[in-house]
Amino acid sequence: MKTEILKLLKENEGYVSGQELCERFGVSRTAIWKVIRQLEEEGYKIEAVRNKGYHFIDSCDIMTKTEIESCIRGAFGRTVEYYDVVDSTNIKAKRLAEEGAASGTLVVADCQNAGRGRRGKGWVSPSGKNVFMSLILRPDILPGSASMLTLVAALAVSDGIKKETGLDTSIKWPNDIVASGKKLCGILTEMSAELEGIHYVVVGIGINVNMEEFPEEVRLMATSLCMETGNKVRRSSLIASIMESMERYYEEFISQGDLSGLISVYNSRMVNAGRDVKILDSAGGYTGKALGINEKGELLVEMQSGEVKHVISGEVSVRGLYGYV
Q1: pLDDT band, very low/low/confident/very high, at 123 (cuts 50, 70, 90)
Q2: Rounded to 5°, angle at Cα 52 from 50 and 53
Q3: CA angle at residue 184 from 108 to 122, to 5 degrees?
Q4: pLDDT class for 253, splitting at 50, 70, 90?
Q5: Please, are residues 276 and 287 in contact by the beta-carbon 8 Å criterion?
Q6: Three-class SS of residue 279?
Q7: What does pTM read for this prediction?
Q8: What's CA 102's distance to the chain center, in Å?
């Protein structure tokens, strides 16, 4: 009930009477008053005026299950599992998926102490600053197509950031969100599957939101939304906007069965498109010109000979010739 009351107050520009809340939720005025008190204790500013009712004024950067669910506008994230601290949202999401959690379930943590990115790299995870979330999906696609969901998520994050902050970001293939040549966000997709089908996919997203400084070892290649815009960002609103875009892009991906409907928008945001890049893999490395992606999400790299190589994400790392991008 608390989530529904908060959502109703947020959506209403005027006052909502106590009587209306009582009738809608079938509870007493005392029960409504207790919910309002709980919300105020969590940091919400709610004005109560006799004979008028309750009016939502403002909130700070609150991260709770109630707050996140009150911001969600679609099916993705309608069910939120929230934790103040967790080992990793991906680890927790996989456990929940094994227990039968529905597609669209979102796992969010204020802090994670065992976060990791691609190739096992750690992820700086302080509390009260960033977004750590993992979305459970159960797509009816072949396992070989699951890696494309990483690119779908990258588009959704880019959209969500634009909507909430006005900041234009780029994508460093396949899944890093970049601003000012530095990393804002990493995405890690994992799945459980058999040869002919997928049990579930977990899309983990870590975003540097309100960080104001970074450890020396990552300072030259990491940035945050706060550092780029000069403003603090409400993480719950950002999560909701990303989920809204993710649902839209996911439906397009599933309807096509590949990225054919998303190639143009992805390539328009790809920071390394048209640039010379260095491809690093277990066999060594080579350089070429990044042309963009194809419908499978593979990076097309033109060699000096004119040959175009199809690079598959995974254990391959892509770098600019003179730095991160």
Answers
A1: low
A2: 85
A3: 65
A4: very high
A5: yes
A6: strand
A7: 0.85
A8: 18
**Residue 208 C-beta-side C-alpha neighbours within 13 Å:** 27
Amino acid, res. 169: T
Nearest by Cα to 289 from 270, 314, 271, 308:
308
Residue 131: CA atoms inside 13 Å, Cβ hemisphere, count? 34
Buried b (16+ CB within 10 A) or exposed e, 123-156: bebeeebbbbbbbbbebebebebbbbbbbbbbbb
Beta strand pairing call for 284-293 and 53-59: unpaired
Q: Domains in the chain, please, with CATH?
A: 2-59 (1.10.10.10), 65-268 (3.30.930.10), 272-320 (2.30.30.100)
Could you read off the pLDDT of 160-176 as tens digits, one per residue?
A: 999 999 999 999 998 89
Q: At what angle do helices 29-41 and 18-25 cross, to 10 degrees?
A: 100
Q: Which residues pair with 63 in a beta bridge?
A: none
Supply the mean pLDDT for the chain.
88
Confidence of residue 10 (pLDDT cuts 50, 70, 90): confident
Candidates 242, 113, 230; CA nearest to 180 is 230
Task: Please name the residues in contact with 48: beta carbons below 8 A apart, sequence gap of 6 or more.
Answer: 36, 54, 55
Q: What is the mean pLDDT of residues 147-172?
A: 96
